[in-house]
Structures are given as C-alpha cells and as structure tokens.
Amino acid sequence: xxxxxxEGVDGTGKTxxxxxxxxxxxxRGQTVRCLREPGGVAVSEAIRALVKDPxxxxxxxxxxxxxxxxxxxxxxxxxxPALAAGETVILDRYIDSxxxxxxxxxxxxxxxxxxxxxxxxxxxxxDRTLWLDLAPELAAARATARGEAPDRLEQAGEAFYARxxxxxxxxxxxxxxxxxxxxxxxxPEAVLDAALTALADLTF
Length: 204
Ligand code: TYD
Hints:
This protein is α/β, with parallel strands linked by helices.
C-alpha cells in the first residue's frame, strides 16, 4: 500500500511514466491503480472539463478551489478506499500541482493554497512524489508535437511556466525525502529506471 504521485508541467511524460510504473510494480505482485487529477471519479471529471475549458474566464481563487474540490471528492470516493484495500495508487498530479500552478504560477502563494488543500484532502500526503523536470520550452514543444490545442491553463504563457517550475524546485528542496527530481529529458526507459530507484526503499 502506497500513494505515489507524479508531478511536472505538461509534456514531461507523466502519463507515460504512470503506465510504465504500473506495469513494473504490477509484475512485482502489487495491486496497482492509476488515477489522474483533476479527475478519476465522475464529479472530478466534470470539474476537469470546467477548469480546462478555454471559453471560460475563471478567477485564480475560484480555480484553486475547483482543483481542491475535485481533489476532495477523489480522496473520499476513490483514494482512501483504495489505500484501505491495500492497493498501491499511482496518481498523475496531486496537491503539489496546486501549490506549483495556483500558488506559484498564479501567484496566490504556496501557504494559502496549502491551507485549502489540507482541508480538501484531510491531510492525506503522498508516500513519494516523482517530479519530472524539463525546461518549459522543451515541455511545450512536446505537448505541441502531440497535436494538442492549448487548453485554458496552457494559454498562460512562458513566464507562468517558469514560475510553476520554480515552485516545484522550491517544494523539492523543502522536502527532499518525499519529492525526487527526475530529468524528464532522458529516454522513457531511463525515466522509469530513475523512478524505480526513487521508490526502492518504500515498503509497500
Ligand atoms: P493534466 O492532466 O496534466 O492535463 P493534460 O491533459 O494537458 O496533460 O492537467 C490539467 C491541467 O490542470 C494542467 O494544465 C495542470 C493543471 N492543474 C493545476 O493547475 N492545478 C492542479 O491542482 C492540477 C491537478 C492540475
């Protein structure tokens, strides 16, 4: 049983790693569940569609609260039951995304965003967090190469992503035992190896 989260800006390979990791841990006999944020349960998927809609103008505080609401529902409806059943959960984004994007990127402050998320998640913290780090321009180029039209968040621009990355770096520096930085410029195989090394001391 463990809660493993994957973090980083869009285009760093979080989803690829989540699936590769699920396969690798599954082969080792663990029951693994992959979830993503915002989403994973019906209410949170509906909030996901709302926050990503390029046609909507959403204030920064409302945005932070919407992500927190999606998270609260996921924790209650899916995460806590899965962990209680002894599953290992691989979660594509969690509270650190809000700290980096809303706290850092939007400038709401990490402390304020941490406070609403402590309430939303009831204090449920990851056992380990894998931060896929890549220069924002390289990550943006990868996302564009996938042919994705920029969603509402991705329209925020370069300075925003520089602040998001700086916030992730500060979080990793503050919690070096939990947040492990992985160079996302490596091959997918090398990223998976680094992730398995980062999880090696976890007792599942
Ligand atoms: P993501 O699942 O990475 O979307 P994509 O399909 O583009 O890979 O996340 C959706 C967007 O929401 C992404 O731009 C990051 C943002 N986000 C936040 O700003 N705060 C949060 O707390 C979370 C979970 C995501």
